[in-house]
Design brief:
4 helices; 2 domains; globular; single chain; six-stranded mixed beta sheet
């Protein structure tokens, strides 16, 4: 009996690769809790940002004017390149070649104080809080977000953002204009590396459809 080999056409392979690259990643900021801030809460954002003020989808210059604490994911599972990544909090620097996931956490009120925690799905490697180190690490920024006033970032005297647990930070700052912004770096994010269940179903369905088409063409040949 002649052995048959299933050959997937080039167009089908292209479609499958595109599907794989387009699979959504689950957010790896797992949540947070505000313990002091006059009824404020932690809100995990997704891009595009729904900021109420200023330029659409922007952060960094009174674009929220809210008493809440916010966070969103930046570049996920990216390799540190060219030079070690300097930290302001943590046992850095992070060595070249290390895989990191980046997250932006901020407090942008009219004027106020907030204290709260933010939790992540993997170990916190360090926090970047200074103007210079934030600028040097902006290659980890989310390309879908407008970062305004980068030269005005950096915590002031009396502000504190620390690592309060293996997968947690404690954010405790006073802010007005333009707000307080930090970058949190964690280890490789397992949540971002695993597709959503719905995406897995979509991929399996696509594979079955391609197999059906190939089988039908083979039978007609």
């Amino acid at each position: 009996m002649k052995e048959e080999t299933l050959k997937i056409p080039g167009y089908a392979l292209t479609a499958l690769v595109a599907l794989g690259l387009g699979l959504p990643a689950r957010a790896d900021i797992m949540g947070g809790n505000v313990t002091s801030g006059g009824g404020a809460t932690f809100i995990k954002l997704t891009v595009p940002l729904s900021n109420p003020f200023g330029a659409p989808n922007s952060v960094g210059n009174d674009t929220f004017q809210s008493p809440n604490l916010y966070g969103f994911n930046e570049s996920q599972n990216t390799q540190v390149l060219n030079s070690p990544l300097l930290l302001d909090v943590g046992s850095g620097p992070i060595a070249v070649g290390t895989i990191v996931a980046s997250h932006y956490v901020f407090f942008d009120p009219v004027d106020g104080h907030i204290r709260g925690t933010v939790n992540f799905d993997s170990k916190v490697l360090g926090i970047i809080t200074s103007t210079g180190n934030l600028a040097a690490s902006d290659y980890l920024a989310n390309t879908g977000v407008n970062y305004l006033n980068p030269a005005a970032r950096g915590l002031e005297a009396g502000d504190s953002v620390t690592i309060s647990g293996p997968n947690q930070i404690l954010f405790d700052t006073f802010a007005s204009t333009p707000g307080d912004y930090v970058r949190v770096l964690t280890e490789f994010s397992p949540a971002s590396a695993v597709p959503e269940p719905s995406s897995i179903i979509l991929m399996v369905t696509t594979l079955l459809a391609v197999a059906f088409v190939v089988r039908k063409r083979t039978a007609l040949a």
